[in-house]
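Cross-posting from the modeling subforum.

Setting up a comparison between two proteins and wanted a second pair of eyes on the formatting. Protein 1 (sequence, then structure tokens):
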Amino acid sequence: MGHTSLDKIKALQKNPANVRNLCILAHVDHGEKDYLINLIDSPGHVDFSSEVSTAVRLCDGAIVIVDAVEGVCPQTQAVLRQAWLENIRPVLVINKIDRLIMELKLTSQEAYTHLQKILEQVNAVTGSLFTSKVLEDRAVKEERAEEDKEEGDIEPAECPGLEQVYDWSAGLEDSDDSQLYFSPDQGNVVFASAIDGWGFSIQQFAQIHSQRMGIRAEVLLKTLWGDFYLNAKAKKIMKGAHAKGKKPLFVQLVLDNIWSLYDAVVTRRDKEKIEKMMMSLGVKVMTRDSRHSDPKVLLSAICSQWLPVSQAVLFMVCDKLPSPLDMTSERIERLMSVGARRFHSLPLQTQELKTAFMQCSSDDTAPVIVFVSKMFMVDAKALPQNKQRPLTQEEMAQRRELARQRHTERLAAIQQTESQIQGLPLKAKPEEEEEKETFVAFARVYSGVVRRGQKVFVMGPKYDPAQGLRMVRIVSACLPPVPHLACCTMDSLYLLMGRELEELEEVPSGNVLGIGGLEECVLKSATLSTSPALPPFIPLNFEATPIVRVAIEPKHPSEMPKLVRGMRLLNQADPCAEVLIQETGEHVLVTAGEVHLQRCLDDLRERFAKIEISASKPIIPFRETVIRPPKVDMVNEDLGKQQKVAVIHQVKESDTLHLDPSGLVTLTTPNRQATVGVRAIPLPEEVTLLLEGSADLIRTLEQAGQAQREGRTLDMSTWTLDALMVLKSRLEVLLQGRKWRNAVDRIWAFGPRRYGPNILLNSVEGYQRPSVWHCLEREKGEKEGGAKAEASAIRDFDNSVVSGFQLATLSGPMCEEPLMGVCFSVERWDMNFPTQRTHLDSVTEEDSNSLDASVSESPGEAAGHPEGRRRAEVVAGLVDCYGPFSGQLIAAVKEACRHAFQAKPQRLMAAMYTCEIMATAEVLGRVYGVLGKREGRVLQEEMKEGTEMFIIKAVLPVAESFGFADEIRKRTSGLASPQLVFSHWEVISSDPSWVPTTEEEYLHFGVKADSANQALKYMNGVRRRKGLYVEEKIVEHGEKQRTLSKNK
């Protein structure tokens, strides 16, 4: 494979049928055709799965590489899932087969069985994804059929047999899965050993043996993989090798040859046999390779000529992976269906763009559609326009003269004062640094021809094409103010040649490219087009969740501007990293894991900020929750009712605060004009998980409710309405029992931030306010009069109660962490205003996060008309020495929720990793020791068949995971390495405020109970970091100071 000229690559770009976007750029000569391969490499570590997501979006196919020894790992499953979600076709390479020969010492027959199991594991993952998709499609079809039946008014009496017939099939029988699975006979599997330079597909061996054996290649292709064997007497290929104890054809014709080559070259070093093999294979090696002391050098020289891995993989890529012209309509519709919108609900002009995707046309009339998946930084000197060119004689003479002048000036500067010497270089330095790096957008053209200097629209993630079509027609510098739409110019286009960049004037459809000049318009990813009808593409799907936080500061405070700029650049360059500035002013970096964090910190020091930085210990997020009263104590003894009440109820009563024995907290505002009663109830675990997974839906529901309160309409697709109705029905199913009667219809709000996994419930007698679901009824066709009547049923200061609930759930009483899985039931809300204070309109409905809006209205604005004067008088009456009444109510609800929370058994919830470790039997005990030391819990342990490896699946708190991988490797001498993926939140069983109360607990733990309380340790650590009060002894037994004077 030689070097290809830039002109030939430009010519190949214009033929999208011969372009393969895979996930370094190479020109491949494939028979009579020339192919252009865009190969995007992505890291394999689970912390960098976001890089896989950015690569997958730009590709039409993917090469999935699986280790022949380890088999399917968690990251393999994640990669297959990402490829499936993006609707791209994968091919499989089973690598490191040499380890089966050299390390595991398997025979060719055992290796064949092992490879079969790996293929089964990979196909099992693909099959589960396919099954879930078919079942989802069937559910959607059933819902549409029910809607059609309702619209057609089909009565059961008219169709007497309709209800008795039910289709019990799942729809899998009719689905075509022939091209779904990996199978060597389909040509989408390559067996390889990249370190030894060989790889093959069974097509190669089918062609080799068809000439020698006189059997057609098509027959061999179907029988080389499977339960077939060669009958030497009859000279026929027959089925049933396993039943008859015969060698399968794959072992006899393929693996035996490879095993005998390794045996001759590496194990025995039999020179005569090696020469015979080389002659039969037609391979010639250099003398220095054959005489080399390392037999692997000779092996690589033979294998790279006999079965070159590059040829096998690239032939498979060209034959089995689709071109840009083969993009499926399903993938196009999914890319354009962002958020709650579905493709069929988009404007007609938007739906017509689907044709442009399918045609992948490079005509001038075709709309330009480009997706930017990530921004990456390059040195400005590496750009083609800044590369050094050969100097002429005149330019060299000029540079010599300039060098002499600078030398003279330097000698003169030495004679000046030290302050002047220090002042000279500092002025020019920032300007030089700013010019050293620039951002290039990594993108793909889906339609049209991208030209240098072209202007395009940048669609924000919330851009609505229907709104844009009404306001914008052409791309221009001066756009009308369309929300979430901007205009930018593509200053330069680049061909990505590994690390090298080549400047281009235009790039046709179907190709991957780099775009310069977008750093001001694009943060991480973006959709670009010349048509305002194009909606933004769906967001990239990241498998790794950013969970690990650190606070960062410069070692020298004067370098804070450089740190801020460096963190801004890091945020733009890394798809998964997040940069936050907290209320305290700390600059916080959020990453996916320990390895990702270290990479980000190194990038900050060396590339982006280029300063010395200090990073805090990782900031671990926790959640606070309540549970049902425990039935047993810490030594599993039955806990009496009196002790339970004594332990749980720790709320101190006052004249404005009262605690009922049942757990109801009643609180009165300081001006005695409002009283609220709140009770905290733990939510079932299934409800918490459902609310956490439906955050986007709940956010859409809240936006619809807010729009309705403001008199606006928010268009929601049928799919969104159906999804919200399903969410409501699932909540009704999960919230069963006497205390949850009609609870779903009484939901007041969700929190924190109005879409979290906590619920505010309306249990006030006589207050029939509309629930959060009332906007659905209006969308489904409720009359306008009914909606207005519902809106008028909302009491004054209703939103103050909601705001107090939001503040309470955002920071709990244990360590100011967000709450999770708690329901606050408001059972009493009395307001006692003086008679002169008339009805006040619900002004606070307009802004959920502010105090009463009527208070902030200036008297000058309100005094202009009688209604304004009346409102000003009422407002003045509600402002007393304690402040505005709405503020008092917010504070009262917040405190009531916190006290109600403390009246129940409190627990911390820790973020948990799922941990998968592969280890041999010798180091299994050490792995368990490290897991036990770090509060890990083993879920499963199984031995991998055919190997000495054990697979351990465990859960580990994120708080204990730092240094875990290093410790495992050190304790096991590198024989075990874990993979950590964020999984879920889990309640820590121990009570952080526990003290021994029963006689058994005193006997077991002692009076001090000074054994480590893990929950208390976590809670005190968070409180200490946040500057909150921590109840601990600073000095113990400090009666006398010991000195060393006695020892003198």
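Protein 2 (same layout):
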Amino acid sequence: MPGGRRRKLQLSKIYSFRCGRSSFQEDHSQIGGPGFSRVVYCNEADSFESIIRNYMDNYVRTTKYTLITFFPKSLFEQFRRVANFYFLVSGSLTFTPLAPYSSVSAIIPLIIVIGATMVKEGIEDWQRKEQDVEVNYRKVRVHRNGGIFNYKEWKNLRVGDIVKVGKDEFFPADLLLLSSSYEDGVCYVETMNLDGETNLKLKQAVEITSSLYRDWMFGDFKAVVKCEDPNANLYSFVGSMEFEENQYPLSPQQLLLRGSKLRNTDYIYGAVIFTGHDTKVMQNSTDPPSKRSRIEKKMDHIIYLLFLILLSLSFIGSIFFGIWTNEDHQNGEMKRWYLRPDNSTFLFDPRRPVMAAVYHFLASLMLYGYFIPISLYVSIEVVKVLQSIFINQDIHMYYEETDRPAYARTSNLNEELGMVNTILSDKTGTLTCNSMEFVKCSIAGTAYGHAFTEIEGALARTKSNGYNDNELPKVVRSSSVKGYNFSDKRIENSSWVMEKHADMIQKFFRLLALCHTAIPEVDEATGKVLYEAESPDEAAFVNAARELGFELHKRTQTSISLHELDLVSCEKVERVYQLLNVLEFNSTRKRMSVIIKDEEGKLLILCKGADSVMFERLAKSSGKFEEDTREHVNMYADAGLRTLILGYRELEDEEYRNFSKKLNEVKNSISADRDSLVDGVIEEIEKDLILLGATAVEDKLQNGVPDCINKLAQAGIKIWVLTGDKMETAINIGFACSLLRQGMKQIIITLDTPEIQVLERAGERPAIIKASKESIHHLITRGKLQIDRSLEAFALIIDGKSLTYALDDDMKDEFLLLAIRCSSVICCRSSPKQKALVTRLVKAGTRKTTLAIGDGANDVGMLQEADIGVGISGVEGMQAVMSSDIAIAQFQYLERLLLVHGHWCYRRISTMICYFFYKNITFGFTLFLYEAHSLFSALPAYDDWFLSLYNVFFTSLPVVALGVFDQDVSSRFCLQFPRLYQEGVQNILFSWTRILSRMFNGFFSAVSVFFLCTTALELQAFNQDGQIADRSILGPIMYTCIVWIVNLQIALSISYFTMIQHLFIWGSIAFWYLFLLAYGAISPGLSTNAYEVFAEALDPSPTFWVTTLFVVVTTLIPYFACSAIQLRFFPTYHETIQ
């Protein structure tokens, strides 16, 4: 073997932890059964067996549309909206003789609105298309024949191909790792594109293929892989490989996922297993749950109401029209002789009045369609996108340390940010930094460490009741080493060798240095050993062990080397421990173990885990330290520290051989329940442990968390914390971050009672369930009675075990009734599934807006269940951010996001929508009044193009400016007066009272405009020639008044003027006059009745200008007067602040 390759292994910092050879002596394989039918012929992609299986190619498409489907699919999406569908139907009817206006004037505005949205959709999809092209046309080296590798585009890869991927390159498909540039077949993989995690993952090839490290070695390579079918589980892979007439089990350790990147490894060889949309990353690329804001849902109901009004007006008009048409020609007499009923069309046939009424009804549906704002949807989309840009660019929500601004990943929920009633928050990494520091420990019943933590300081200040901060202990760092803040002279500087239980202390820190998956790396510049750990906890432990004399120096596939202090000689010595097994941590086991063999040949299992699972696995001989350790753990929990219990046991050779045999058997079981079988075998050896002690690490509160929670509570927002911590830890962190306050009474629901513990020891499951339910029900009932009898604020604290029963169908409503009456709720020891279930319960039970905030993959279910999901871009990766609606870098930014941007967006959108309906009712009802005035002749009061452009040009821009720029109060006052936020929580600005009052204002404005204009113009000459005003004069005058009124009314509604708002309001009014002048200047064939109407009729006439001024002022005076009275005698909270 070439020396370079051997040297590369020695320099490698990448090691594997899976030890022991596998065999198929007892194969419980399900290969060939449902879910396990995939067969891959490696290096034989062109063979008949491969071709007949017809596996998917490697071309990936993430676009929503194709060139063929864009128009039909996009049009379908647009016309799913009821308003757009209505305008499509009415536009189609304009091509019939029923139309009261020209078809062109009806269709063009619809085309503009639909076209604008389709262009937006098309641009977004084209960007996705460009990304697809860039990915599909990447190139990778693929084995052809005779050990020769040539470049091939990703999209042309086939199942069974052998590929060679170089350092820092992405994997083109899901690959089976065959070998790497390292002799032991390991590689480093970055999975940020999959789960957002920045720490590197270790992968290892099957031992039999790890020697294939040169191109030519694959000339005759043949193997058959049988494995599971394509699925979305990123963390599982079940299969086997047949190579040289032997079978070898496959696991996730050998699977390299598409989208991952090769790091710190020169190259790897892999066989393509899943391609294209069969890959796990594509199987996971489902759309997130569709979320719509409450205002948007309510807006649909308003449109239905307007449809009802439209139908009612059309029906009423048609009845009168039918009656009058019937009376037009009776007994040979023509009542309205000037209409020539004896020679009328089918639309006005007195001999068929019922059909005439039906035709009139259809024509009215088209005519009164202007009640429905055609540009509403597209205007709201534009406004929300611009609002999102302002959120993204807010410098006050930019976190310089990580260079992360706020990022609104969707603009659909902007106004929901101003309506949040309940916040459900994770703790670790969300309220805290997820930056662990080793601060205290308990060894052999003795507590060590004197550090005064930040959480203890915050807790002391909360409980000090006004004492001077100088009287409280100060938080002082004892070390500059990251993750280490331990101070105790009894332990430091090798002083621990003088302690009574020095041997236990040695074993304690040795366990910290051995029981982990961290990788040591030597900094070439300083020569210092650094650690690449999978979690902040592990990094803190190995750093603490190093600082106290047990340095992890080197790690290989089968051994760990420590520089540790010898208890006898008191000198540093190097000891090598043979690593036999790593029994990894998961959320079910809540612990991890390693099995090692020391230099004396002793077999040891070293275990660390949560106290809830560790104490029950201790040997009875641990009793002498157990009580003291429990007391210390509770003390650490009271200080807000995270604790782990450490234990070990010496194994007999026979016991380990039996364990290893069973473990290999279940690992070779190619079945869906293999993981549970493995856990069952591990369970048998992790028992009768000897207690060493407990660790205590501090997870610091993020900056500004107490102030932020305090402000949110002042805003009337209820805050729930869902955490996996012990109850004591959660309660004290609750006090430290102002979630719990002095004087707040606590309702604690827990099953840690003597009665339940007796039943649990007896193991009678039915009795346990019955007693637990009765206990929970009793505690909930008692809690409700406590609240009924007191006026004080309450906090509810419940543990995970109790929560399991509280979320049962027969009890969850009672639990929710209790919880919503409490100011704060803390759910301890809660699992990811329980977090999602609690969020669902709160959302469905309260029917108010819920916001979930978290930073880790275990928070994804909670974020997707809530109305709004906010992801923290912390140290647990980006999976929560990728599943969220809005991403922020720190919890403290939630204050500004809700109280400032949420309040503004809610107010802007609510006012904007109400104004839209007001201006359309004002315009649409004048059409009805004019038609009634003309005996329901289905004749519009305005020119066709006046009708069409009302919503598109003359009244749309001011409302967009209001939705983007208006502020009732500044951001400073939003934060200074958090009670302002209750406007959104109570939905005051978009209540039915406010909506109907706006609608009534629209009806009043229409009545005022119509009757004042008709009264001012009738029975008198309009100009110097003595001509009276006809329809061609009345229509433009009414239209001018409406343009002035609706634009001035929005000016009266605006609290914060900018130059853009001035430009849009006065520009829209000016544009109407310019349009009227320009439209009248074109040929009469196009301008019809509007030909030269402004230049020759309106502008020269004083009546036009006087009437416009009089009608506008008279119509606006009632609105202005009502607003002034309300402001003077019944001011709202924000008006008081103004």
